[in-house]
Design a protein that fits this description.
about 170 residues, alpha/beta, four-stranded mixed beta sheet
Length: about 170
């Protein structure tokens, strides 16, 4: 059972409210058709601080039963991105929810990279196979340099998650 909670007492989402609820409901049904999602509260809230500026969307799944979706309706491309970004973000975070149950998100950099990579692959299903701008492959020299740095941290449970995943 997945419950959607749209937090908008201040009416920051305005005319987007109904479309957000419709898209969330549709996406959840699609994800449930593909994954065995357990009991999850999906909280959708305006929070510009935690969104990707280029899209106006962000998400976080801190534990198996909670997905947080952050929106910034004032972001330049919010309206144009609403359907694809909201759908993809919900799918990505629900994928994390499933992994939290077994085998877990991961404690090391390498484990987190696997988890995020799998969630990105799952997300592309909801993007008609398109990779989001923030997940495109790097050029070989840049990839090799990052791989050398990452190898030193692969097994580190104290790696800097924000530095590795948010730049």
């Amino acid at each position: 059972m997945i419950h959607v909670h749209l937090l908008d007492a201040a009416n920051h989402l305005g005319d987007y409210r109904q479309k957000i609820l419709e898209l969330a409901t549709q996406t959840i049904a699609q994800v449930q058709g593909l994954l065995n999602v357990g009991r999850v509260d999906v909280m959708i809230v305006r929070n510009p601080t935690w969104t990707i500026p280029e899209s106006g969307f962000g998400g976080y799944c801190p534990e198996p039963h909670l997905v947080q979706i952050w929106l910034d309706p004032s972001a330049q491309n919010f309206a144009a991105n609403l359907e694809i970004e909201l759908t993809a973000t919900i799918a990505h975070e629900l994928h994390h929810s499933v992994r939290w149950h077994n085998p877990g998100y991961g404690k090391t950099l390498l484990e987190a990279m696997v988890t995020e990579g799998l969630a990105e692959c799952f997300e592309t299903v909801f993007r008609s196979g398109q990779t989001p701008f923030y997940a495109v492959p790097l050029e070989k020299p840049e990839m090799n340099a990052l791989l050398q740095r990452a190898r030193l941290e692969f097994e580190n449970p104290s790696y800097n998650h924000a530095a590795w995943f948010f730049g």
